[in-house]
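Most newcomers find our protein records easier to grasp once they have seen one. A learned vocabulary of local backbone shapes supplies the integers on the structure line. An example says more than a description, so a record of this kind follows:
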Amino acid sequence: MKLGAFNLAGIETGTFRLDGGAMFGVVPKVLWSRTNPADENNRIAMAMRALYVEGGGHRLVIDSGAGVNFGLKMITN
């Protein structure tokens, strides 16, 4: 994608799993599970992405991070 003098691109940096019900809220599982199948713990795969920006003689990677406040349930595969 181009934005003014800058070229932008998304970079997939990893994945994590999130509870499907928390992600989709009131949308019934029968609808969202068609495109986002859940595992035995009802978690769906989510992508983490960074933004690559190039222009004006510079190259930048902007990564907002995933944070560090994960409980044991979040870090267990």
Summary: The beta strands are 2-3, 6-19, 43-55, 58-62.
